[in-house]
Structures are given as C-alpha cells and as structure tokens.
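Hey, I'm writing a tutorial for new members on how sequence and structure tokens pair up, and I'd like a real worked example in the thread rather than a made-up one. If someone can provide the structure for the chain below, I'll link this post from the tutorial.
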Amino acid sequence: MTQPLNLEDSLLHVIKLLKEPHHHGLHVYLEEFQPYDIAEIYRNLPTKHRAKFVTSLEAELLADLIQELEYEQQLNIFLLLGIERASKIMDIMENDDLADLLNELSNDQTEQFLGSMEAEESKNVKDLMQYPRETAGGIMTNRFVWIRENYSVREAVDKLKAFAEYAENIYYLYVLNDQKQLVGVVSYRDLLLADINETIHNIMYSRVISVPDDMDQEEVARTIGRYDFIAVPVIDNEQKLVGIVTVDDIIDVIVIEANEDVEKLSATGKNSIDFTTNALTASLRRLPWLILLLFLGLLSGSVIASYEATLDKVVALAFFMPMIAGMTGNTGTQSLGIVIRGIASQHMDRKTIFNLVWRDIGVGLILGLVCGILIAAITFVWQGNFILSVITGVSLLLTLIIGTLAGTMIPLLLFKLKIDPAIASGPLITTLNDIFSLTVYFGLATIFIQYII
C-alpha cells in the first residue's frame, strides 16, 4: 500500500539530493512519486532550490509536474527552461492542459511557443484553443484512438497497442466512417471478450452517447455522471468526432464549479477569495453584496418602525422577534442549499419543478406546525397570555412556509431566467425572509392588539 507523502522528510531529502554533483539519485527517488506529490514538493521547496529542481528533472517527469501547477508557476518554469527545452516538454504534455496555458499568454508568446513545437502537436493544440474555455471543446483532449467498423478485433487491438502511449484514454475505441463521423464505440472489455477474427461492426455499440463541442462543461459533467462514463466523445455540428472529455477533467470541473457556487452562496462574488487574497481585493469583491444587503436591512428596519405603536403597547412582542426572523432565515437557507444541489445534479423540467414546490409547501407546513405549537406553548407558559401565544405560533407557522418557499422559488426563478441560481445567496434569502417574517408577525399583532394589552 502506497504511503501518503511525508512532505517535511521529502523536502529535506530532495534538497540533499540537489546538492549532489549528479542527479541520478533524485530521478530514482522521484520516479515512484505521483505527479501531485512532485508538485507539492516543488511548491514547498525554498525559492533558491526551485530552479535547480526543475532543470534537474527528466522531460517526462517535468511535463507531469507542470500539468499539476497553477498558471503563474507553469509560466515561470517555461521562461526558466527557454524556448528550445520548453517546446520539447510541450510536445509531451496533454494537449488540453497545454491549450489552457497558452490561452493565458500574449499572442506573440503563444506563436513563439507553438512555432517551436512539432508541427502535428502544434496543430492539435491550435485546434483546441479555438473553443471557449468552459465548453466541452474547451476541456476535451484530441488524443484518442479511432478505428473503422470493418476492422477485425485483431486489427483494432494492434492499433490500440500502437497508439496506447499517445492516447489519453484507452478504455474506449471510437468507430468512424469515411467522413470521420462517429458511428460506434467499442470498450476495451468488448475487445478482450470478442473473438480475435470478429469484425468491429458486429461488436460495437452504434447508439453512442456523445456531447456537442459547444455544450457547457457543467452539462458535460452531468452526462458523464448520469451514464457512469470514464470518457465521453465530443462531436461538432457535422457529427464528426473532434475529441473526448475524460473523467479526470470532469472532476476538476466539478471542484471549480462547486467552489464558485459556494462563493456565490456566501455572497463573496464570482471571483475567488482565499487565504492569500489581500485585504483590499477581498473587500472590493464582497462590498457590492454587502451594500445591497445593507439597503435591504434598512427596509427590514423600516418594517419594525412602521409598527412602533404596536411594539410600544406590547413590549413582550420584542422578545420573540429575533427568534421568528432567525427561524425563517434558517429554513430558507436550508431550502436554497437543497435546490442548488438538485439543479446541479439533474434536469429540471416542469414536472420536477412542480413536484419540488409542492413538496416544499408540505415541508414548510410540517415544520411550521411543529415549531409553531412548540413556541406557542413556551409563550403561554412564559407570558401567561393565550392570544399572544397564538400570534407567535401562527406567525412562526406562516413565516416558515414563506421562508421555505422563498428558498425554493428564488433559485428556480433565476434558473428559468438563464441566470446562475447560486447568485441567490444565503444572506440575500435571509434578509428577504426577515422582511417577510417581521411583516407577518407585527401585522397579526396589530390586528389583535386589543386582545393582547
């Protein structure tokens, strides 16, 4: 069983090996490490040792390292290596990772690097760079193995062996016709089980699940998750196979999209805020949301002010105000999280939306009844006023129903308007529910004020 990386010991050992006149020991030490672990070593090495570490690595290992790093670190390594050696590393790298990197460079830098690569590899990378970043084309690789349907199983296996090192994924062989259109797929398992002289046409699946090259990456992720694929083929508008999206790239997409949704739900905006973000940048990214919530908060305060006379007559109403507002915000945020997760994991048609709304009416009713009866009993025991206990109980019942529906309806409405539903952040739902709950609570109290005094 492989042991997890002991970073401190590994760093000390790598620094020791870097001081030796020859780097054979470093190569032997690192060859059993996973690319991620090598990248962790690089990130944590003292700056003075990084250049020597990079220049000491063999091409294959260096390509693996670069693909695990962030854009700025990748660029620093390429500039350190120089055009000649960098081009050799680029020929080894996965084309989709390289396309992402080159898209971040200036046109002059991109042309310089592409011009120094092998012609075929350069063309493959250029083909990938034409697609928008967050689409199937933007995350696919064009390194795959394809065959003709008139091949025998033996011929298909021979081609698979010949291109196994080149291809990013060898679990599927894609069957193309003379126009390079996708007409079938054969799995590695199918080849192993078939007779060696059988033709591909007889064992291939002709009903191929594919995605268009302009499909959003989140929908691609849902497709792979829905069918449990290791890879999914990508086709253009002429049904020609242009690439494949592999599950490792989809995992990256899921992590990125989940982080973006968490940031929006936290009202921190689309741009990421982490431990390294400086105070000014973090403040500017959060300020627009906070200003919006500030004005909504003033509206909430104006609701209380409009019922000042009621509050003056029955001071006990103030005791339950934070509880009712807080409970409504909590249930709204819970519903919001469930809806966001549901939208991300399944297709939301009219029937699904209707069932979800109807279910949440029931959820709000059950939660409201249980919590309303409980708070009504507590109010009666504490204040000894039956009408006041009924008002608090009924208010909590109504506001929990409203809060649950608000947490459900707002993200669904944004989803239907083609707006990212994660924008309906937790703080926004909470603030709106404060306004709803206080209006209901003080409205009922004002109607029945003569029975409370």
